[in-house]
Structure formats: C-alpha cells, structure tokens
Specification:
Low-confidence stretches: 11-17, 360-406, 420-440
Mean pLDDT: 82
Order of helices and strands: EEHHHEEHEHEEHEEHEEEEEHHHHH
Helix content: 25-40%
Largest sheet: 7 strands, parallel
Strand content: 5-15%
Structural class: alpha/beta
Radius of gyration: 37 Å
Shape: globular
Number of strands: 14
C-alpha cells in the first residue's frame, strides 16, 4: 500500500518578469546537449502524457501544445486543464519544461519573424526539451485528501491506462511515494503500458521533501527513474534521493517553469528533472518511430556520462543525461528493457499468469479488475466412485452388526429373567415359596 503519494518538486514563486529573462535561465539546454539534439529532432508526432496536478493549456508557452486530457480524481476539470490537489501549479511547471514552445517577443510579433534558431514559437518564455511534441494532461489529486473520495489506488491505474489508450508513447510521472511497494491495483496498468510499448519516466524523489530512498512508481520494473543534479552537475543534496533503481540523472536545481495564468516560477526537485528526460525520450521516439520503449530507455542510459563510482550507482544511476548522444550516438540494439519487466515481476511475485493486452474501454474513476488474476486456492476434485463405495459399505455393515448385537443382548436378558423368576420368588418367601414361620 502506498501511504503517501506526492509531487516531487517545490516551487519558489517569482514575479512574472520579462519572459526572455526566464529563457536565459535555462542552462540545461546547453549543459545537457539539448540544443544540439534539436538539430536532429524536436519531438514532432509524439504524444507525452503528463500525469500530475493538471496543466493550464492557456499558458502562452503551451499554446497549441496540449492535445487532450482527462481528470481521474473526480474533483478536477474534465479535460485535466485546471490545477488541483496540494500543489495545483505543479503540472503546468512540468509541462512547460517538457514541451513548452515559448512565445514571440514584442519585436517578433511586430516583424512577424520566427525564432532565429527555428525552434519553438518565439524567443520569449520557457521552451521545453521537446517543443514539437503534443501533451496529454491527466489531472490527479495528490498530497492531501481528495474531496471526491477517489484514492490513489484508483487514480494512478486509471491515469496510466487512459494515457495509453489515448496514444501516449511517453508518460511523465513527476511524483513519488513514501514506500518502495505499490498497490496491487497498479500492476495491470503498468503491465498494460509495457505491453503497449510505452516509455514511463518517474521522479526519484527529494531529500528536502522527506524522501531518502525512492518510492513507487520509481521502483516499478521497467520505469526509467530520474535523479537530480545541482547546477554544477553534481548530485543534489536536497533535490534528489538515492536508490538502486535510478536510471539517469538530470538537472534539478535552479529550474524555471511556467505557472497557471501565464506567470513563471523558479523551482527545484526531481519533478523538474523528470520532464527533461521525458522530453529526450520524445525526441528519440520522433526520430526513431519504430524503436521499442526498451530500446529508447537503453539509448538514454547507455549514452549517459558516467559519474560517481564507475558503472551504475544509487546516486547517478548509469550517469548524467546527454540528449545529443542519446539521439545520435551509435548504440547497439537492446533486446529488452534493461530496467526490467513488470510482466516478469508479476509472474514471480504475484504468482499469476500475465494476461494479453486488453482492448476493452477504460471507464474513468471506476476500479477495474486486474489484468493479472489473483492467486487462487486449488479447487477440490469431484469424489471418485471407487473411493466412496467401500467406505460406505463398511459404515453400513458395522452399523447393522452393532444393531444385531444389541437386539440379541436384549432378548437374552429377557429370557434369563423369565427363567430365574420362580427361584427368586421362593427365596424371598412370596407365594409359591417355602413356608415361613407361622408366628404361632
């Protein structure tokens, strides 16, 4: 059971200053190789689902970016485009980092000019890693009691399944929990995503938020878990957590993102690092549309710049994100997802058989039966005839014999009493017995 599920990032709300000041703050566009990657791909044709607190599609930097949405909490906008939960602005911050398109400056508006580098809608505002990708906004109520009464056991599976059915090829989950385990109700949804070849990227969590070790969904096999770095490329002491499940590390401090209503905010946390990696996954899926989810993940982790102890470690994972290398390096094809398989995990730990992908429609906010059957107790076989006849005969035979013995015993007792009757009467001086003293 997941006892606490919360968004993995904190915002420091800043005044809405001149938008291009925020573009200048996006240091990760260069340090993570994103500008170079744009020469190859900008995410065109790829849908990315943002399972979060809701996304404000009216933000200037998200104009035309949000292709659809839903609410799985029962308490939000039906299209997932209003902020809800404990941190309602969180989803918009995430969305702008992932697929923000910026907006034209006043001069660009007057001149009708396109951005000089040909990326995004303009040189002002926040531009995301995959500015040509389309977003699917899925609002969830996290971090505080849901007034609609729909729990995370239902919200998360409904969100994942809706995203898959709506065509998402990447799912961003900038959220974390207080435990490494997850409700069994999540199994079938993450299995459904795996079976439908969807990349899922999740936050490792933050020490500043009380997460010392990554919790679900980061711990689910096959999920690409993102740790956080400071501005110098070192592991963040506050805006990250550590875990053996970490796949890659990305910038998590001194971030900037869009706020509902058109503003901006400085923020930090693996909530911000996660959409940077999801954006790179979208760039890869756009350039290599036939590439499997496992191969996409393999490109990201195998091209990461090694950091910490050599090889994989619980702080940096396989290393630091390099978007340019992830897109353009010569990477051997992976036969399977190097981060594991939820199908295999279910078979081993739930002792169930993995069901084939389901095409049945998913009804929002309705708890569904898991695709993986619950473990069952072996059913008893029907009794066999030869196993029943002899015991029955034996029971009936012994019963009859006992009854005969009782009857014979009674008859013998009666007969003995009749024969002994006269002798007993004489001995007692009763009529027919010897004469007693006359008394005379």
């Amino acid at each position: 059971m997941v006892s606490v599920l919360a968004l993995a990032g904190g915002a420091v709300f800043a005044p809405a200053a001149v938008a291009d000041q925020y573009r200048e703050k996006e240091y990760w566009l260069d340090s993570s190789g994103i500008r170079e990657a744009w020469k190859t791909s900008q995410g065109e044709g790829v849908k990315v689902a943002v399972i979060d607190s809701g996304v404000d599609a009216t933000h200037p930097d998200l104009k035309g970016a949000v292709a659809g949405g839903t609410d799985v909490s029962g308490a939000g906008d039906p299209q997932g485009q209003s902020g809800i939960g404990q941190t309602p602005a969180h989803g918009t911050l995430v969305a702008t980092l992932l697929a923000g398109r910026g907006h034209p400056s006043e001069k660009e508006k007057q001149d009708g000019r396109k951005p000089a580098n040909g990326v995004g809608a303009g040189s002002d505002g926040v531009i995301g890693v995959a500015p040509e990708a389309e977003l699917l906004a899925v609002s969830t109520w996290l971090g505080s009691p849901n007034p609609a009464g729909v729990g995370i056991e239902e919200q998360i599976p409904a969100a994942v399944r809706w995203a898959v059915d709506s065509g998402a090829k990447v799912i961003n989950m900038s959220l974390t929990s207080s435990t490494t385990s997850w409700p069994e109700s999540w199994d079938d949804a993450f299995l459904y995503a795996e079976q439908n070849d969807v990349v899922i990227v999740a936050a490792a969590g933050n020490r500043a938020g009380g997460t010392e070790q990554s919790g679900a969904p980061a711990t689910i096999p096959g999920v690409l878990t993102v740790a956080g770095l400071d501005r110098d490329g070192k592991a963040s002491q506050k805006a990250s957590a550590q875990s053996i499940v970490i796949g890659v590390a990305a910038p998590a401090e001194d971030l900037v993102g869009g706020m509902p209503g058109g503003g901006y905010a400085d923020w930090s946390g693996t909530s911000g690092a996660t959409p940077l990696v999801s954006g790179v996954a979208a760039l890869i899926r756009s350039k290599y549309p036939q590439m499997s989810a496992g191969q996409v993940i393999n490109r990201i982790i195998s091209t990461a710049s090694d950091a910490g102890v050599p090889g994989h470690d619980p702080i940096y994972g396989f290393g630091i994100l390099d978007a340019d290398a992830a897109l353009n390096a010569d990477v051997p094809e992976a036969g399977a997802n190097p981060l594991g398989s939820i199908a295999q995990w279910i078979t081993i730990h739930r002792r169930g058989e993995v069901a084939p992908p389901s095409q049945a429609p998913v009804h929002k906010n309705v708890k569904e039966e898991p695709a993986v059957p619950e473990p069952t107790t072996p059913a008893a076989e029907e009794p066999r005839l030869e196993g029943d006849v002899l015991p029955g005969i034996l029971v009936i035979g012994f019963g009859a014999l006992l009854l005969v013995i009782v009857i014979l015993g009674v008859q013998q007792t009666v007969r003995a009493r009749k024969q002994a009757g006269p002798e007993a009467g004489r001995a007692e001086g009763k009529p027919g017995g010897p004469a007693g003293p006359s008394g005379r």
